[in-house]
Specification:
By secondary structure, the protein is mostly helical. Helices cover 62% and strands 1% of the residues. The chain is built from 68 helices and 6 strands. Helix 31 crosses helix 33 and helix 51 runs antiparallel to helix 52. The longest helix has 26 residues. The chain is elongated, with a radius of gyration of 58 Å.
Length: 1502
Amino acid sequence: MAAAHQGSYYATFSVSAKHILLSEILSVTSVMRKNSRWALSTPSFTTRDSALASSLGLRVTKGSSNAYASGHGSTEQELMTGFQDLKRLVKDVEDIHSLPLSTLLSPFLAIIRSPLSTGPITSAALTALHNFFLCGLFYPEAISLQSSLVELSSALSSCKFEASDSSGDEVTLLKIMTVIHDAMSGSVGTSLGDIEICEMLETVLTTSCQMRLSEILRRSAEGTMHQLVRIVFARLHEFDPEAEEQKLADASDLEGGEMKMRVSASSAQAIPPSAAHASEEGEGTEDQQTAEVPPPDVEEPPPDTPSVLRLQYGLPSILELLRVLINILDPNDQAHTDSTRLTALRTVNVAFEAAGARICAFPALSSLILDQGCKYLFQLARSDHPVVLQTTLRVIATMFETMRPKLKLQQELFLAFTIDRLAPPAPPPGTKNATLTQKALTSSPRGTPIPSTPLLGPPESDPDKIPATPRLLVSPARGDTREMLLETLSQISRHPSFMVDLYINYDCDMNCENMFERLIEFASKGIYPAQSMGGHDYQQRNAQYLCLDLILSFVGRMTVRAEGASEAWSVPLEQLQDTKSKKKLILTGTTRFNTKPKTGLAFLEENKLIYNDPDESRPLSLAKFLKSSARIDKRVLGDYLSKPDNIELLKAFMTLMDFKGKLVAEALREMLETFRLPGEAQQINRITETFAEVYFATGPEEIKSQDAVYVLAYSIIMLNTDQHSPQIRKRMTLEDYTRNLKGVNDGSDFSPEFLSSIYESIRKREIVMPEEHTGQLGFEYAWKELLARTQQTGDFLTCNTSAFDADMFKAVWRPVLSAIAYAFITFEDDYIIERAIAGFRQCATLARHFNMPDVFDYVVISLSQATSLLSESQSSQVPNYPVLEVDGQSITVSSLSVKFGTNFKGQLAAVVLFNIVNGNANALREGWTQIFEMFQTLFLHSLLPIRMLQMEDFLGGSSVIPLRRSQPTRTAPRSDGLLSALSSYLMTPYGSSTDALVPDATDSDVENTLCTIDCISTCRLDELYSQIMQLEPEALVSAVRALEALAHERTVARLKLESDDVATAGASQDGQYTLPYDPASVFLLETMVSIARQTPQYIEEVWPIVFEHLSALLSTPTQYSVLLNERAVVALLRLCLVLSERHTLRDQIYLSFDLLARLPPTVASAIAEQVVAGLTLILQQHREIIRSQTEWNVVFALLRSTISHPEASRHSFDILAGLAAESNEQVVTPDNFLGLVNALDEFATAAGIAVDAQQQGRRTQSLAVANSPIVERGRKAIDLIADLKKCWQRFTESGLQRNQVWRQFGLPLLSSLGRQASNTSREIRHASVVHLQRILLGPHLPLDQGNHSQVEETFNRVIFPLLDELLKQQVLMRDPMGMPETRLRASALLCKAFMQFEAREGQTADIRVLWIQVLDLLDRLMHVDRRDQLYEAVPESLKNVLLVMNATGLLDDRGERQIALWAATHERIERFLPGFLDEIIPAPPPKPAAVPAPAQPQVPPS
């Protein structure tokens, strides 16, 4: 057998176990003999010869027994004899394993147990036991192993020896710890029973708690305790929970069972193991002769081997150990010191670490921790003792780490308490209802605080009463305490799913606080400095770092989930979301109820939170809500229920409580804990009556009537006050109480037992009414409520899901971002700044992921403020900064570039900001204002990419926006120029300035500027600019709105502000203030228009914004710089090109044209070239957009506005010429015919004005087609007008009436030629007369000769006005040399036209009036100047007319009409050519009756 075990158990020793045994016997006996008392001991013959006598058949005394068998020695001789007998026994035994282990150990255990032993002797015996473990004497198959272990445990736990020197004695105690460790950690450890485990652990625990022992021994014992606890609790992973729970139940049912008695003895009276020796600390004296192991609080087991087969230890001993440790933690038990509690705390922590989550599988352990464990730990967490606090917080953190699923409400309480201590809330005045946390934080006003572990909490605000004992309340955590709490909070929250778990379990739970929102709010505020929290600066900064880490961890984990690392969520999402939304309504409703019940109920009913079930009565529905809502003010509830109108509600409320089978005191306790009993007697009476009715309906025993219940209820309320009120000194006795209730049970008495049970129930446990108590009593009541809720609330759910991230982020993003921004701006630590930057990026990622532009805007706004690139003023003057060449690159050393180059944090913010916006521009809304404001600042300091500085132009391509200007000279050019207003500004006014000297730039300035340039380059602004052109509609509109707002601020708003200031100062010179040139306003305008131009698909959304700004500028253009006006015009026309492609926006084009056409002449001339260039493009690419006469008129008006500009007028004329060209015959329509004629007419008129001006100014060669483009265009305009006659036939063929064509198209054209026939330019005059004659005498004229009124219109509106104009002296003076010829041609035209239209055969109309007007004009022409050719030409022309009239029969004698005409003719001609008519046509014979001649028109004097 020895051989069989040698390989397994003899690993430490190579010699035989028998040798070891004999050697240890020798060692112990040698030490024994060194002691004088032991050395004089002689063996007793009775003992020694008993075996011999027996073998020889002699009679032996019955009282004698073997020492090794009994294991007891009452004298020194017996103890020594035990070793001698053991030596004899094993002398002839080769394998000592064949002997019972109890026999081998008996003398050693007797020495350990004997009070006669000394320290060295006991130490030698313990050393022997240790070596026995090492050599393998203890092994699982050993004979009588279990009984030996029982004896060993008993001996070790009751070890006594005579004291010698203290160090030697402590060595002995240390060896006891070693042997216990050998027993429990070795191969036979699993063979120990529950009782042995408890005895051994209590021995070690007691030693570690003995303050009279040295610290080294106590620490060694504690270390041993930790090892043993790890061994014991690690076995939970091997146990079957159901089997162990059953084993626990069976152990408790044993009749007088040793295990129950031993294990539960200490906890029966709730006295921890160390309590037994607590009183001994002051009792030890110098004469003390005996040292002993501090005994456990259990009865010593009988030394005899138990007869019952003991099972291996399991849950019962582990439960008892945990109970003992937890009981030590009770801060209200003054039997224990903080040192003892520290030992227990450290041991409990080891237990949690060893057991891990497995502890949750055992209900007995879980319930103990959930109740007593958490209660004591949370109270210790308020300790002022730093080590106790630190250790407690560690245990709490470990507990949550291992048992989180079972600690939902406990974790809520701890988090709320921690946040309250770190950031104490200021309760509103008048708030009297305290939360569970507040009750847990206050100490009893009647109790005495324990200095080491005070009960603490934020003071309650009661305006009517000053707190009785404010010294018991602990102030908010400061210094090291604050730091420890924050560290613990950080450790608890380290799980990736922590915040999600808080949101799911608390924020989405109707009866829990919004712990997620509250924690984020606290952490966000914690990043800001807390002046009132005290502590060193480094402690404050560390606290801020911890809060920031909490925030950033939350954001980072959510980002990871958003990127796909998320777990699936099994519970229906809508259910929790509905609970969350309903929770908000209930909170609002209960708050209103607590203020005014009627208002609160109306709100609840309106939101369908009550009265939803049609099958349920209204009182019952309301009662269920009031009873289930933990947020209802209990005082308000009591007042409301006890109102006379709410009797049915009160009854329904009480029926919701289960009073069946409960004593009346307990039923009343349950009722009074649900609401605060009102103070008025009538209200109390109604509540008591209703309670009596409901309770009596349950059929309680021994109560005969409802009235009896009523009286009992009143008596219990009075008894409760009597027994527990601090103002009452003489308490009511049971006899007094019994006497007071005589005969109230329907005329009879209650039994003494019945009344005694009521009395004791109230005496031992006060009925704590809501809102009534604070401190320990209030805490106990609140803890009871928490445990009751624990049964209903279920487990703490954990799931790292992204299902709720959107709702969570929406709830807290604002304080989170504010905190991160503050940390980024304030903190200097590189690691913190780096993490803050990561936080910004992650928030931006989440904003995009959840489609939350508000968040993205906030990120941009926060970072932009940190960049220092936001403009602080609106100065339009850009200083002259030095421009240098560095490595072939031209750089501008500006004040901003130098300052920004030294601002490292600003550079970081800029890089982070633009890197975030790049790729996420579609998520931006309000933040565009900051982006473009930074662009504006960079532009003013020449730091933007060149691409963003360019202006698109119709004339010269692109150019760079100028930064500076000198006062421009606004003189109009005197000749046709090729440079536009833009180029003129670029050449001199804006391109150079001598107002200020350019400062010198130092090497440092250059270096800083290079840093700035590198930073701006890293920001990739050109990429962002490209992305802006590809924005989605909503983001694009936001960007354009931001640009418009900034541009409006620098133009319209600034103009109003400054003009008001000037008007107030009275400094206005001409009554109109003009803004100086502002390059930023041009930059913003160009950027805005460029975006709109490059996003034509969204022009409908963008156009109204841009047009509003452009119209504001162009409505008062004289108050802005020329360049800004020019850019506004170009912008408007560029956008009109885009509008041309949208039929729905066609009307906007003409609004724009009309706006341009109404510009003042000075402005119109300056921007004419751009107008014409833009209009040309529009007409070339989209001529089809002009359809109506009104639209054409707007276009022609815009063209006419450019005539005064030499270069622009050329392009305008080309447009008109293109329209009127023969190849574009179909382009001229009835809608644009008249407008085209008028426009061409104005060009001819402008040529005449130019010729006249030239003649007035300088007496040199007059302007002509050959030397003047203006005259050339006027001459061509006449030809084009005349060519338009070809359209008349087409208009007639298209269905228009001939009369309509004549009146609308024919007559206006002839009128235009008639007007131009008196033009100052001779070539234009003569061309007009020629064309007029050709048209009038040609075949194209749409004149109906049979319609005499049309003929009269021709003469009255065309020919007669022409001749009247030519006869004017001032007209003659325009061209004295050429005008007579024009008159001659006009007179010929007059005569020819008359002959064509009036002197024709078949003329039936009365032409006398018209003919007399012709003669009048001929008279005037003939006599205007006798030296003129007309004097001779007029008679000749008149002669021809008369001959034609006579030939056609108009002047013969065939009728009265002819005779009358001849008479009138004769009479008029005789005035200026006497006898002329008679020479040509003989006078007809006179008639008998003369027809009176018509009245002669008044001929004006020639």
